[in-house]
Amino acid sequence: MVQYLWDDILIGTPIHVDNPLFTKIHEVVNANAQRIMTLNTQPATQELQHQLLEEITGHPIDSTLQVNLPFNTDFGKHISIGKHVFINSNVMFTDLGGITLEDHVLIGPRVNLITVNHDIDPQTRRSLVLKPITIKRNAWIGAAATILPGVTIGENAVVGANALVTKDVPPNTIIAGNPARILKMIESS
Questions:
Q1: Per its UniProt record, what CDD domains does this chain match (predicted)?
Q2: How far is CA 4 from CA 82, 103, 106, in A?
Q3: Band (187; pLDDT cuts 50, 70, 90)
Q4: Where are the domains of the chain?
Q5: Are 128 and 110 in contact (CB under 8 A)?
Q6: How many CB atoms lie within 10 A of CB 43?
Q7: Which CATH superfamily is domain 20-185 in?
Q8: Is 0.90 surpassed by the pTM of this model?
């Protein structure tokens, strides 16, 4: 479960550009940019990779995590990663709203996890609207899938390659398409 950096982040409530929190957010983004660049460009052992990910996220990283670089995040501090998680290359975690990956999650290459949206009103369009993403235990997100703000992917669910996921995915289902829809239920063996 994600722990938010500041108590005044209210999920679903716009953060307007005149809010002091808006400035704090950009300060964290700028500070993390160097760590992310180092992670993605410097040869590193898995231990050093985990150390850099701990600095980026501000949370302990389990030794069972496997990440194929490059790994991208804009904020970093609102990511929670469980045990035995695999994250393939060229993912994008837009995590200000919070991203939780439970144990045994698989994330395919070029996946986008987007927790930030903008206000529809043109006068306040730069405002940020945050909604968390949760990917439950043993779920698999296929290559180049995009998960939008506020979505929960159920336990054991499979999201097909290139899917655009706009709403919650029930456990034990396979979904695909744009927008994603249920293709079938997964039967236990």
A1: LbH_MAT_GAT (cd03357)
A2: 17, 20, 24
A3: confident
A4: 20-185
A5: no
A6: 5
A7: Hexapeptide repeat proteins (2.160.10.10)
A8: yes
